[in-house]
Amino acid sequence: MKFGIDMGHNAPPDVGAASKFGREDVLTKEVGTKVISKIAAVGHEAVDCTPSSASSVIDSLRRRVQKANAEKVDAYVSIHFNSFNGSANGAEVFAISDAGRRIAQPVLDNILKIGFVNRRVKNGSHLYVLKYTQMPGILVECCFLDSQKDMALFNSESMANAIVKGLTGKVPTDVPPKEEPKEDRTLEVQKVLNRLKIRDKNNKVLVEDGKFGPATGSAISKFHEIMGMASAGQSAGAITWKFIEEVLSQPTLRPNHAQGSAVRYLQFCLGDETDGVYDEATVNKVREFQRRMGLVADGIVGAKTWSKIMGLVKLDLSLKVIKDTVLKQQPINSSEISDSTHKYPIEAGQELALHSWSEEGNHVKVALLDTTFNGFNTWYAFTDHIEIYKNGQPLQVEPDDEKPQTNERTDGFNLPGFTSTFYLSDPIIPGGHFYWREALHNGQRIPKYKSHVESIIALAKRLEDVRERLGGFDLTITSWYRPEPWNSRAGGASRSRHKYGQAVDFLRPGMTGRQMASRLRNWPGGMGIYRRYPNLLHLDIRPYRARWGGA
């Protein structure tokens, strides 16, 4: 006899129900695969009628029917799992014709022997697959996947045996299963997980050497957790590859019409809760991502959005560490943080994908896209130690134009956050060439905030290098620290870096602003030339590159 076996759902966007105990498409795949094998083992023929993909749920159902009809099977069997609200339980089988009911009853009787509650054989005239198949058919609801009682009883081997016994009158208990030699796919899974940006337990990229070790195992385990199957452990089996194939197929995901593995991976990439449901929260995350990537923000994940998600283009935003630094949970000095889990040292040269960033005083607040340190993905970094990149290049933003200021005077002062006394005639950096009188406008503008002082010191360190690159000549500072009201009086932009001690305007004898800019073209922050003062150059230590005035 020739049976058409349909493993319910398993054709995104047709993925079925889900609960904390399991997912319907995974369970039907487990049972259905065994049913097909066992039917063949007892001497009958089994045809897999399950499509691998579909454009919609109705298309998924249509393909199953077409396969069964084209193969001219003698009986059609669709395997499913029920779901309600956690309170219902039991097994039931649907059929339409008398011939279908004669097939359904023995299948149900054998399932009941496992211990499930009898929900009887029922009329399935409302079911598409039973209505349009040309042979007797049944739809088996094995049990309720959201019922703790049912899932405690459920075993895929026992369920498959019950279905086969009901269909054929016997089970292959005396036929030992034929073991296929296992193919070593370690190298393949390493490559796939790297492509999917699934890192090991230390957030490192897998070495693609074909050798299975703790790193590969932990990455596989992480993938299983994302897919909602943490119990699958560290080995890549048939279910693992089924999930991978679904994700790599990049199905079109539409709001309120998609769920399953591809949605879970999407949520992982966007930093959302991985529940596999494409609900309003996930839609909002997708729209935000689409806006940042310059796509139509319609919440539909199609080919263009998938290409961005899968990393087929350069990262939208990234943080590049230009000096050894410490990431922190607060925008303060790392020495002031006692909790070791709230700071993380990171070396120069590292680049981390960003979800978003913003400036807070002399720090940058960053939300890392696919990396966590000490369980956190949001950190603060000192402005002078990092640079923001966009699409693989230093981020450049056209800032508001602002006017320079030229003035000088002298006096003495104390600084917030420091107990020692400072002198205007002292260099900001011991042994350096830039003085407090230059930064503080001869003592008229004493900072009120420690963060402003730290920015001034950071900029002074960078200016020592600028001086050397411009030939070692003394630079004439015309404007540095310029808090309100002086910034407004000078015609400065409302968000001027001068207000925080992060910007400086200066002259270098014998060079124009454009000539200086040419020498400093790799400056990682802002650089500009004033139209009315072409010999002046503006530099600042913002965390991204900005150029204006022909600099």
Task: Enter the CATH topology name of the largest domain.
Answer: Aminopeptidase
Rounded to the nearest angstrom, the distance between the terminal CA atoms is 81 Å
How many strands appear in the DSSP assignment? Answer: 23
**Briefly, what CATH class of the largest domain?**
Alpha Beta
CATH architecture verdict of the largest domain: 3-Layer(aba) Sandwich
Number of helices: 16
Largest β-sheet summary: 6 strands, mixed
- Structural class, please? alpha+beta
Strand content: 15-25%
Percent helix range:
25-40%
Gross morphology is elongated
Flag low-confidence runs. 174-181, 406-410
Q: Assembly state here? A: single chain
Radius of gyration: 33 Å
Spatial order of strands in the largest sheet: 4-1-5-8-6-7
Highlighted features:
551 residues; alpha+beta; Aminopeptidase; SH3 type barrels; 4 domains; six-stranded mixed beta sheet; six-stranded antiparallel beta sheet; 16 helices; 31% helix; elongated
Structural description of this entry:
The protein is α+β, with helices and mostly antiparallel strands and 551 residues long. The protein has 16 helices and 23 strands. Strand 2 (18-19) and strand 3 (22-23) form a beta hairpin. The protein is elongated, with a radius of gyration of 33 Å. The N and C termini lie far apart (81 Å). 41% of the residues are buried.
